[in-house]
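U., I forgot to send this yesterday:
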Amino acid sequence: MEQKFVVVDGLHFSYWDNCVENSEKTVLFLPFAAETGQFAEVFETKLPKNIRIISPDYPGRGKSEKNDYHNTFESMAKDIDIFIREMKINNSILIAASFGTAVANELVKQNTGFEKIILIAPGEFFSIPKKVLFRILFLPANFSERIRKTYLSVIRIFNPSLAKELDKVNLKSILCQWLNTLNYKIDPSHKNNIPTVFINLKKDTIIRKSSKKKLQMLYESNKSMTVNLEHTMDIDKFMGSEAIEKELILKIVKEIL
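Result:
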């Protein structure tokens, strides 16, 4: 995929495009919080050559410019919507993963012009250890450094798997996005009838299970499936799973076709 750039409503957006001309279908992919749009390459080799894939970098991620006001999913969805209209992306298939599903939930309130929606690991974020960590990280720098180190030391004792994940990600670069996720609540009042597929991850300690009912209310025409994958901040580990192709990518490709 090729990285390209466009100015959208004064905001410089970077996005990834497989540059298919005269495509029969277009896939718009909203990635994990820690990823850029380049993550969409995992689908590219599995799809027919006549399908175009476009995946924007979130504001402040990759080479997309960060807005001063950009601190809510609503404002992020607004910018993505403007990007879609600027790029003249019509009747596309919207795929979103984890953090991206919250952006998608807000996006469909503003733009219902999608043929189908596929949400991977959708729902409200829930993890007490992570909540505590993120709250600590948002304390003033001169106050939080010692607390941060103490917290991580405790996590390494009681939750070594989480500690390993935290060691592999750049927390500062995605901290605002994750703080938004902590406070995000699904609003099921804006119902729509766009055909929607929920792909839940079997080993998911991040998503609040009770939020699935809200999703079913929000997307009235829906079906669910579960894949045997772990929801983790370590994207290399996620993509390195032996089940990733059989359990996820091939299912997504089937839904697209």
